[in-house]
Amino acid sequence: MAGDFLLLDDGRPVTAAAMVAGDRVRLAPGALETALGWVLKPEGLCRGDTCIPVRPEHGLTHPDGVDLAALAALLDRPLALDTGERAAALGASAAERGAQLRSLEAPDFNLPDLDGHMHSLDEYRNRKVLLLAWASW
Fold first, then answer.
1. Which residue from 37, 106, 107, 109 has the least number of CB within 10 angstroms?
2. Domain chopping of the chain, boundaries
3. Please, what is the average pLDDT of the chain?
4. Distance CA 38, CA 32 (A)
């Protein structure tokens, strides 16, 4: 069944034209570039100056589009797929997450203080910060 498909690209929601058949999702070729910024070229799957060679055994391209599971595997990114809801989450690759962890730099986040004023971790960059966390579980 063809139609719109919700894709969370590392937490960023995008809608793409896709064909869903059973447990397979195939993105329309134009949707691949619009939603994720990747383009199929003769040299492979490219975004900016980065190109990844695509071989027939990857199973990436089909007459009705680009296979989402094969794309996730080729990009080394985890994929959570719910075809019934026409939605999927494409996470960050292990290599990206590993590089971020090696940098020892915490990702930015925003939280309110006890008075309800919002604070961003970026406001405190290059300063020592003590973060206290508590959970009821």
1. 107
2. 2-97
3. 86
4. 6
